[in-house]
Amino acid sequence: IPNGLQGVGYGREDLEDLTERSYAQKRLIDNAPCPVSRKQMKELFEDSLFIGDFYLYSYNFFKYMKYYIWN
User: Fold this and answer.
1) Phi-psi region of 67 (alpha: psi -120 to 50; beta: other; left: phi over 0)
2) pLDDT tens digit sequence for 29-42
3) What angle do CA 37, 40, 44 make, to 5 degrees?
4) What gap in Å lies between CA 27 and CA 70, rounded to an integer?
5) 56 CB contacts (<8 Å, ≥6 apart)?
6) Of residues 28 and 20, which shows the higher confidence score?
7) Cβ contacts of residue 24 below 8 Å, gap of 6+?
8) d(CA 44, CA 52)
9) Whole-prediction pTM
10) What is the DSSP string of 18-56?
11) For residue 24, what is the DSSP state?
12) What is the DSSP letter of 14?
C-alpha cells in the first residue's frame, strides 16, 4: 500500500503544481464549507505526503475547520 502522496510518486517539488491544479477546480473550492486559500491547500498537500503524518494532517484540517465554523 503506498504511503501517502509520496508513495504514489509526488514529492515536495510537486506541491506548487498540485496546489495550482487543484485550486483551478473552482466548483469544489466554491462549494467548500469555508474559504480555502492556496496557502492552506498547499499545507494540506504537504501534510499528506506521508500517511505517517496523518495525525498532523488531521489536526491542521480540523483546527482550520473549527476556526471557520465557530468564529
Assistant:
1) alpha
2) 888 888 888 998 89
3) 140
4) 24
5) 47
6) 20
7) none
8) 14
9) 0.65
10) HHHHHHT-HHHHHTSSS---HHHHHHHHHHTS-GGGHHH
11) T
12) G
